[in-house]
Amino acid sequence: CVALEDRQEHLEEVADEIEKDLELQGITGIEDRLQEDVGTTIGKLVEAGIKVWMLTGDKTETAINIGVATGLLEPEKQQGDSREWVSRPIFTTQAFEVDNIFQPQDFVRKLTVVAEMAREARRQHRAYDGLIIDGRCLEVALEPENEHNLVAISQICKTVICCRVSPKQKGAVVSLIKRYERAITLAIGDGANDCNMLQSADVGIGIRGLEGLQAFNVCDYGISQFRFLQYLLLVHGRWCYRRVAVLVNYTFYKNIVVVLPQYFLGFVSGFSGQKLYNDFLYQSYNMVHSMLPVVLFGVLDQ
User: Fold this and answer.
1) Is 25 helix (H, G, I), strand (E, B) or coil?
2) Regarding beta strands 54-55 and 160-163, do their DSSP bridges make them parallel or antiparallel, or are they unpaired?
3) What is the mean pLDDT of residues 9-28?
4) Is the Cβ–Cβ distance between 165 and 181 less than 8 Å?
5) pLDDT tens across 223-235, in order?
6) Is residue 243 classed as helix, strand or coil in its secondary structure?
7) CA distance linking residue 208 with residue 217, whole number of Å
8) pTM (2 d.p.)
């Protein structure tokens, strides 16, 4: 039969019944290393004022280690013989379990308390080092009555790390920030589980790697390594932004030049509708001053 309630608990019970009295025949290890210059790239994005979040399916400890290795989280601070962690709210399923049963009401109470503290910290212009939340807690936090508290906490965090999340939750987090913050979001991923997130973001960037081409096929831009993101955003993105700004001003200037003489002619011609330019000259002006300068500027400008 299909269990519609307490599905996870039933799955664990069935797994316990099946996975017993087994003989170990061998062990296979897969090395999952970070790509080259990931930490450097993330550091430059942070310096540029871009807020970087990490949505991963790894467990909490692994996600924290990756966050520290890439510079998203600060390492453990040392003060003499004592150790002090910077402000870092952590929500894990184990912290809200009673007899191995997750208690969502306890999590909601803790989330509300931390959200009130976050709002007070924001008024005092203080920031948290980061927010860490796993998939089970995130599922409750994304409910309509709780999502405003999640956003309040994330607003004062330098980064947010969501671990053990599903593809649906990745897309939901992106949509939540777009709806509340009205921010331009960019998602980058390399696997099939990132497709939902890439399609939910304003800009999706897929990495063509060892996990297949699913993310690469649904993205807006494709790259082969994560480190190329800094060139795509900080170099080509800057050039594109500058070109658009220059050409917008040029378009206004071009239209003013062609329209104002016709406008002033109306005063001396009694607004009779007399044309200052013949049709061929008018169309030639648009052809020469609308198409050619834009093409030349896009090709030659760096």
Assistant:
1) coil
2) parallel
3) 83
4) no
5) 989 999 999 999 8
6) helix
7) 9
8) 0.75
